[in-house]
C-alpha cells in the first residue's frame, strides 16, 4: 500500500483549520489512511500516511487527504467544483506510436504559487500514481513541465533512437539510446520501450524536448521550481480511460493549491478529444440496501447528508439515491463501495460492536491450510511465490500458448473459457482456466531481472461445470516455471518428484503431444489412473509469443486430488 510523508502545517493550511496530533489519528481514517509515524524536523511536524486503498490515487497526497477531510467534517458539501477553461493548445499524436505507447492526455494548470512542501507533494503524487496505479509506469507515466518554457503546438511522436536531448539531472545531451544505458531512470524503466523500433518523444513547435515517456523529462522544460507559475501536465499509457483518471487526479490536486485548469485538444490519427474531462460520474443505490448492510437506523436524509460529506451529489427518489461522484474517482463499481463511504462518514468508531448470537465456533478451512502448506513447501525448494490476476483473455490463455480455442487439452486447458459479458477492457475479458500463461506473462515483464528465475503460484482456475448452479467451478492449482539458460525437463521433474514425495503420492508420466511444449519433452501427470496435470519444456514459438529469449520449463497440476488429512 502507498506510504508517503505529509506536513501537519501544510495539511492544516489546505483544510483551513488546526488540529492536535491525537485528533489527526482519527482524521486520517476519513481519507482511508492510517497515521503510521509522527516526527519533528526543523520545527515542523511530519506524518507518514499509510494509504489502505490502492484504488484511490486521489488520496495519495496532502491535497487529496485535506480535501477528503474537509468534506467529511462538513466544510465542503456535495461535488467539489473545478472550472476547466478551454485553451488553444493542441497536441498531435503520431500514428507510429500505436504499438509503442499509443495514448497521451494533457492539461495546463496556471496561477500556481508553490512552496517547497507543495513541490514535494506534487512530485510524490506523480511518482506514487505512476508506481502503484500505473504499475511501475507500464500503464501510466506522468510528466509535469514549466509551461512558460513550452511553445505550442506540441507533438507526441515516434523518434529515432539517435535523437538527442539533455535529460533531467544531466548537463550534457544524450541520444535516446544512451539515456536508457546511462540515466538512472533509463536503467530502471528502459525495459518498457527498449525493444521498440522507435522511442516516444514529446516536443514543442520549436523542437524543444519536453520528455521521453515513460522514462525521463528534459532538463530544460521538466524542472519545476517554486518560481514556476504555470505547468503543463502530460500522462501517457496504453489505456485511455486509465490515463484520463490519472490526469484528473493530478490537475485537481494542483487546483487545490489555487491553480486554474485549462484543457488541451489532443488530435489522434482517427479521433480528437479535449482533456481533462472532469464530468461527474453517475451511480444509483437502494437506500434500504445501505440501511440493511450498515446495520444502522438511518433516515433517507441522514444517508444523503453522509454521502454529501463524501463528495457525492445526491438526489433522493423512490427509495433510491441517484448519485454523481467526482471524475478523479474510479472505484465505485458496486453498491458496497457507496456503503463503505457512508460508514466512513458516519465513523467506524461510532458503531457499537455486537457479539453475534450464533452457537458455532470458527476455524480455518482445512483445504486452505493445505494450500498454505504447499506454498511453504515450494518456498523450501528455493522457488519464489508470485500472485497473478485471475482475470485474463483468450489470446493469453490460448493464442500465445500455441493452442486452438475449443480443443480440450486434457483439462490443461479445457476447451472453453468463462468469458465476461461486458468487459471493461479486452485485456480482462475472461477468467483463466490454467495458470502457466500467467507465469509466462510474469516472466515476460521481468526479462530485465537476473536469472535464474524460479517461480510458482498456488492459485485458482475457473472451469465450466454445467452441473453446478453457477455453471462454473473454481479449482485450486499449483504451477511452476523455471527460466535460465540451462533449464531442462529434468529440473522441473525433480521438483515435481519432491512435491509428490512430500504429499505422499505416487504418480506416472505419460508422454503427450501438447502444442505449448516441445515435442518429446512433455508429459501428462497421472495419479490413480487420472490425469491431474502437465509438465514439460515450453515450446520456442510460445516463448517468442511472450517475448521471452530464455528457455522455460515447468508444470501445472490440480491440488484437490492431492489433498488428504493429515497432510505434509
Short description:
With 568 residues, the chain is of the alpha+beta class. Helices cover 27% and strands 30% of the residues. Strands 4, 5, 6, 7, 10, 11, 12, 13, 14 and 15 form a 10-stranded mixed β-sheet that branches. A 7-stranded mixed β-sheet has the order 19-23-24-28-27-26-25, with helices on both faces. A 3-stranded antiparallel β-sheet has the order 1-3-2.
CATH C-level class of the largest domain is Alpha Beta
CATH topology of the largest domain: BirA Bifunctional Protein, domain 2
Number of strands: 28
**Tell me about the biggest sheet?**
10 strands, mixed
Would you tell me the structural class of the helices and strands?
alpha+beta
CATH-level-2 architecture of the largest domain: 2-Layer Sandwich
> Per the principal axes of the C-alpha atoms, what is the gross shape?
globular
Q: Give the rounded overall mean pLDDT.
A: 92
Question: In angstroms, what is the radius of gyration?
Answer: 27 Å
Q: End-to-end distance, in Å?
A: 33 Å
Q: In what range is the share of β-strand residues? A: 25-35%
The CATH homology group name of the largest domain = Bira Bifunctional Protein, Domain 2
Report low-confidence residues grouped into runs of 5 or more: none
Roughly how much helix do the residues carry, as a percent range?
25-40%
The count of helical stretches stands at 15
The domain count comes to 4
